[in-house]
What does this fold into?
Amino acid sequence: TIPADVTPERVPTHIVDYSVLCLCFFPSRVPLILVGNKSDLVEHSSMETILPIMNQYSEIETCVECSAKNLKNISELFYYAQKAVLHPTGPLYCPEKKAMKSLCVKALTRIFKVSDLDNDGILNDNELNFFQRTCFNTPLEPQALEDVKNVVRKNLTDGVCDNGLSLKGFLFLHTLFIQRGRHETTWTVLRRFGYDDDLELNQDYLFPPLKIPPDCTTELNHNAYLFLQSVFDKHDKDRDCALSPEELADLFDVFPYMPWGPDVNNTVCTNEQGWITYQGYLSQWTLTTYLDVQRCLEYLGYLGYSIIAEQESHAAGITVTRAKKIDLQKKQTQRSVFRCNVFGDIGSGKSGFLQAFLGSNLMVNGNDEHKSYYAISTTYVYGQEKYLLLHEVFPDFDYLSDADLACDIVCLVYDVSNPYSFEYCAKVFKQYFMDSKTPCMMIAAKSDLPEVKQMYGCSPLEFCRKHKMPPPQSFTCNTAAAPSRDIYTKLTTMAMYPHVSQADLKSSTFWLRASVGATVFAVLGFAMYRVKSFFSKH
Ligand SMILES: Nc1nc2c(ncn2[C@@H]2O[C@H](COP(=O)(O)OP(=O)(O)OP(=O)(O)O)[C@@H](O)[C@H]2O)c(=O)[nH]1
Ligand SMILES: [Ca+2]
Ligand SMILES: [Ca+2]
Ligand SMILES: [Mg+2]
Ligand SMILES: [Mg+2]
It folds into this structure.
């Protein structure tokens, strides 16, 4: 055994002598080294006869002639053996074609795109330095940087552009590394960016462990939002604060598949062209993080979050909120995403209610085939930005899942023009929410239409009063402009302060207490004004 500490790669190597060796020639990925022994006995090298054999069998990593008698090439032989295992050329390079294999090109192209922080198609000195530091833990000396560029310049016409490395130049450099036997350089880069020996992104990289106790939700933290912002900025090339289909495709070019379908355009805010806005983009990330945090981690992995933001893992971008039970006990919450499940009979106006939150009125949202059962956007509660996630629940009682029932606030929607629509709301409330702590809000939808008497034991207003709910809120999305947003702010407020009763919500002391934060700012503003005027007077 060669002990680890005497080898350059720091791996122990066991050498075994066999009496017989069965070499099975089934396609295998075990690298081979062809060793010519007793080189002390011949005067001429046999390399010329060996090389064609080596070219014929790509499993043969290298050939070496050695002599046990005079120790020629013995330590080299074992060094090559270690290298062949740790940094195989097989997955990277095709010796027949003298070119990198397509999976390797694909991986390096993704790495280039992730490292091209301003997305101009060129790695400038800053980006190259960051790349070097990330992969090799050392900065690149200015001279070394110039040397690298010169090598590329000499060999390729468009490898260096604007004094930076183009994708072509970057790929050329790696081909050169491999051809010169320095493929460990390329492997170091690939592994740093999460690739395994098959050049697939490794599961440990994409799915770092993250524990989510029951009753807790998942949100993105400030750092992750900053990163996602920078990703948006670098792809919003025309700076219109929205992602055109081309810009969006370019953003997701580092993904193995397109993660967002056309339904996303009906889940978050879009501009007049129907393109996802900056706000909408962050909302969709917030939604994914909330509903499916594993998926969110995977996506962050494709974008290279932990590498670019210099975090231990993508899990560092996630906040696991404290259990809601504790929020309720302490009567306050640090969460910034609240879930509102929307119930209502068939055709009562639920989808219209969701779309209105995104600013679409009936005219706009009436004719879209890519329906979404979610809508997410921001609201402001006492000056704090919060996300409200609306979920339209399929109106079939038999299909209600735990997720349909677990939320921060419930909306019960009935159609004021349909006398049979309220009964459904009353039934859902009595069956699922009457004894729960979840606050409920009754929505009297389609308020633009003539109201008819509901066929139910009592009127909606009486029902609400009896069950200590706020009175039914009139709502319509049949408006000329964007529908009113008041209701969504109300819902978020109720979700944030579930312990506050209806009477409290109306009382002035509650609003005073709740707006303490805003008061502090007002006082600070006053103090600053005083200081300013003090200086201006003297
Ligand atoms: N006049 C008027 N019509 C509305 C309003 N909201 C929705 N509608 C119409 O009512 C019908 C049903 O609306 P949706 O929002 O699809 O109702 P829904 O509850 O989502 O229906 P399902 O998903 O099928 O259960 C559609 O034809 C809408 O155009 C509104 O505020 N005013
Ligand atoms: Ca760049
Ligand atoms: Ca744009
Ligand atoms: Mg022997
Ligand atoms: Mg619907």
Residues 515-538 have pLDDT under 50 and may be disordered.
